[in-house]
Write a structure and sequence with these properties.
With 555 residues, the protein is of the alpha+beta class. The chain has a domain of 228 residues: Gamma-glutamyltranspeptidase, small (S) subunit (Glutamine Phosphoribosylpyrophosphate, subunit 1, domain 1), CATH 3.60.20.40. Helices cover 37% and strands 16% of the residues. The chain is built from 20 helices and 19 strands. The strands form four sheets. Strands 1-18-17-13-12-9-8 form a seven-stranded antiparallel sheet. The chain binds 6-diazenyl-5-OXO-L-norleucine. The site of 6-diazenyl-5-OXO-L-norleucine has 14 residues, from strand 10 and strand 11.
């Protein structure tokens, strides 16, 4: 009986998941209908969008385990009703015992999968501290109220969606290597069916302890001890000291303008805001709307801007607490003009011919957007890095750990799981944060809120956000059209344009091939969960991406 109800819930959920939602009190767009509903309920109880975002974050750790987490990290951008914008950085940090060559063998060669799977792949998790930081500064409800919906979902269980079923099926062998992971996600040793109720009791107990005792429980008490014990027993290096000393940081956003819009996004240790700024400011030199949406010329300009931004990313970007990142230079008008002038409209610039600019002197994440009627706007991207992170559940905590250490440059020029390369700026150092591409973003025009957006997708995150913004601003699309529109991506190396299959005219592709561009095809790029404000009608429109299982809830 339970199973049949579950199947209908999933089918209903999937049908519902495909549509945008309109509300005038509050709206949440996330990777799961259950989590979006939690956010709306929190606002109905008197919470603001920050309260709702925190509750959604904890709920996703239960109902969207491939990326929702408390064993990972992320970034939050908040705009207050007064128009002030700030950000919270809760990116994971390298443990104290980490060192530059920890994933290399004695010949200096990267050891396959060491930074991706198992106990050594995790950075010190930041999500709980990040949500606590935002709660302390902006919340109206009690901390406990924000965690209890997640506790209840984990304890009662929830119906497994098609997306989660297929993900668990695909990874069964790998994830079964860790006993705690197998027991948690493969009850009785088998993949839970679509619609079957998945109960996560250990995680419910951990979340309830954190709810009752406060966020420090995660970093200093029973949970911290069990995380450190289980990780070290499996050959990892995260210690109680690492957890006790983890701190989330409030940082200034990256801010720039694009064709009259103000764009606020995440500063380093994410490369998101900086690269988004550099791409948009470079393409601002060309009349994209005159060229036409998906015209060969518009695609070429965007590709060339992306190529140059990712070359700069590889060289300049890293944790600003360890490495001096020249943010102002990288998003300056002067650099954008120089980059734009170097684009040859007759032919592709080979990536070997593009190196980083000369500075004078010196695959599962999730995004959710929340907005309330008072004008609190929240944009959060959070991740375990790979789908289901390292596949390692920390002992009896029910916490799935991240494999974020792979986002460091484990060797100069050696690509990470997204094919991104790096250098000294992003080399491993104890207590350093690994570079990210996460790009939670808020856009205003003449001080009025316009859009909240972000996406998963590893290296493709920045280009997906950039293209949705160009769709809105240059091509005057509605938010639904802008999110639906096919996406393409170039990241300097490898020198190839990834395009969504069936999304582009073969004639345009042929024209670009003749100019020297190479293409590869992907089924889907990104999962943009966004909100627009409809000022004329005084309402909000929550737009989930249709590429995965995302859903909006509105009130
Ligand atoms: O921080 C980053 O850039 C990556 N860890 C994000 C991973 C990701 O988006 C995977 N999703 N598909």
């Amino acid at each position: 009986m339970k199973k049949i109800i579950g199947i209908w819930l999933v089918i209903g959920g999937l049908l519902f998941a495909q549509t945008f939602q309109v509300g005038s009190h509050g709206v949440v767009v996330s990777a799961s209908k259950l989590a979006s509903d939690v956010g709306v309920e929190i606002m109905q109880k008197g919470g603001n969008a920050v309260d709702a975002a925190i509750a959604v974050g904890f709920a996703l750790a239960v109902v969207y385990p491939p990326a929702g987490n408390i064993g990972g990290g992320g970034f939050m951008v908040v705009r207050t009703p007064d128009g002030d914008v700030t950000t919270f950085d809760f990116r994971e940090k390298a443990p104290r015992k980490a060192h530059r060559d920890m994933y290399l063998d004695k010949n200096g060669k990267p050891i396959e999968n060491l930074s991706l799977r198992g106990a050594l792949a995790s950075g010190v998790p930041g999500s709980v501290a990040g949500y606590a930081c935002a709660h302390e500064k902006f919340s109206t409800l009690d901390w406990r109220d924000l965690l209890m919906p997640a506790v209840e979902l984990a304890r009662a269980g929830y119906p497994v969606s098609y997306f989660i079923h297929t993900g668990l099926k695909y990874r069964q062998d790998r994830m079964s290597e860790c006993d705690a992971t197998r027991n948690m996600f493969y009850p009785n040793g088998r993949v839970p069916e679509i619609g079957e109720i998945l109960v996560l009791t250990d995680l419910a107990n951990t979340l309830e302890r954190i709810a009752n005792k406060g966020w420090r429980e995660f970093y200093q008490s029973k949970t911290a001890k069990e995380i450190a014990r289980s990780i070290q027993a499996a050959g990892g290096i995260i210690s109680e000291w690492d957890l006790k000393h983890y701190e989330a940081v409030e940082r200034e956003p990256v801010h720039f303008t694009y064709r009259g819009y103000d764009i606020f996004s995440m500063a380093p240790p994410s490369s998101g805001g900086v690269c988004l700024g550099q791409i948009l400011k470079t393409v601002e030199h060309f009349p994209l709307s005159q060229y036409g949406f998906q015209s060969a010329l518009a695609m070429q300009i965007v590709t060339e801007a992306e190529r140059r931004a990712y070359a700069n990313r590889a060289h300049f970007l890293g944790d600003p607490d360890f490495y001096d990142v020249p943010v102002d230079y990288l998003i300056s008008e002067a650099l954008a003009a120089e980059l734009a002038a170097a684009i040859d409209l007759e032919k592709a610039t080979p990536s070997q011919a593009v190196s980083h600019s000369l500075y004078p002197e010196s695959k599962e994440t999730t995004h959710f957007s929340v907005l309330d009627k008072e004008g609190w706007a929240v944009s959060v991207t959070t991740t375990l890095n790979g789908s289901y992170g390292s596949g390692f559940v920390a002992g009896k905590t029910g916490i799935l750990m991240n494999n974020e250490m792979d986002d460091f440059s484990i060797k100069p020029g050696y690509p990470n799981m997204f094919g991104l390369i790096g250098a000294a700026a992003n080399a491993i150092q104890p207590k350093k944060r690994m570079l990210s591409s996460m790009t939670p973003t808020i856009v205003t025009k003449s001080d009025s809120l316009m859009w909240i957006l972000g996406t998963p997708g590893g290296g493709t995150i920045i280009t997906s956000v950039a293209q949705v913004l160009m769709n809105l601003i240059d091509f005057d699309m509605t938010l639904v059209q802008a999110v639906d529109a096919p996406r393409f991506h170039h990241q300097w190396l490898p020198d190839v344009v990834s395009v969504e299959k069936y999304g582009f005219s073969p004639d345009v592709i042929r024209m670009l091939e003749q100019k020297g561009y190479c293409f590869e095809y992907q089924t889907a790029i990104g999962d943009v969960n966004a909100i627009a404000v409809d000022w004329e009608n005084d309402r909000f429109i929550g737009v989930p991406d249709r590429r995965r299982q995302s859903a909006a809830s509105a009130w």
